[in-house]
Please model this.
Amino acid sequence: MAESISITFYHHGNSHTFEFPPDSTISDLAEEIFSSLSIPQTNQKLMITPKLGLLKYPFPDPVLPLSSLLNKKIVLLAPLPSELSSLSEASAASKSRQRSSKPKSAAPARHRDWRKAQEEATYTFGTIIPLPYLPNPEKSRRFLERLRDDAGIKASMRKHKFSVGVLTEMNPAEHTTHEGRTLGLNRNRGEAIELRLRTDAYDGYRDYKTIRKTLCHELAHNVFGEHDRNFWDLTKAIEKEVDENDWRSGGHALTEQEFYNPDDSGIEGEHMDGGGWTGGEFVLGGNKRPTDGSAAQGLGRRELMAQAAEERMKKQRDANRGASADEYSQ
Model:
């Protein structure tokens, strides 16, 4: 019997090799990763190929022998310790500010709702953090700030008294598997929310309304962890509140339901599949359904964008002809 076995895995492009006794398990690997790289087990996800797929701690089989992984590729999907530290520090600083800064009484003014202003300063996202190692982090920051300042999001957060410590983006490469793509994460019921802003190829940003709908879902996780009826009722209520107030944000309204902003660089019409929700995560499956039921498979990005532009122009013409504001069809 061999005296030890070597397990090699990859993390953020770097390879790591650890030595273990022959009878070691995958739980021993997770513990060694924590000891050597300071990445807590709860933040560890192991992508193992071929066949086993994505395994999350505490793992479906905690005693899976490491010897069964010798001929497999292992990728650790986890933030760097510096990233975890910055998120934790930003969250702690946000909570400290919220505790120490009570809303100050203000004299009533004729043209400003001071109570609303105080509530918006309290029920919001404490810190915006783009990922600095991805291209154009300032553009991601502006995207996150746009979500933070979206009138519909602000109105819903104020109504439900939601305070979120950190709003940040996620790296698509670390949240994509053969089973689907994670669109959003809510950690510890509002400590931090991560959103998938970028396209899989990192060549642009996803549709604003799709990301905003994901944010509605993640905000509902501030109250409910499981996807039960209470959770879905709250998600639906938040989405309705956001839709009813979206005319206040960066674009202009075509109807009360349809929001259009000329700066959106994503592809409109991308749907979220109905069966891909797990835990506090929002997962998008591999199949996409076109909004009008037509066969959009095979169309390239340019064709889809042109099709979306035509649809927006059609809706604008309909609105200008006096289409009812509360009649909206896909």
Summary: The chain has a mean pLDDT of 75. DSSP finds eight helices and 14 strands in the chain.
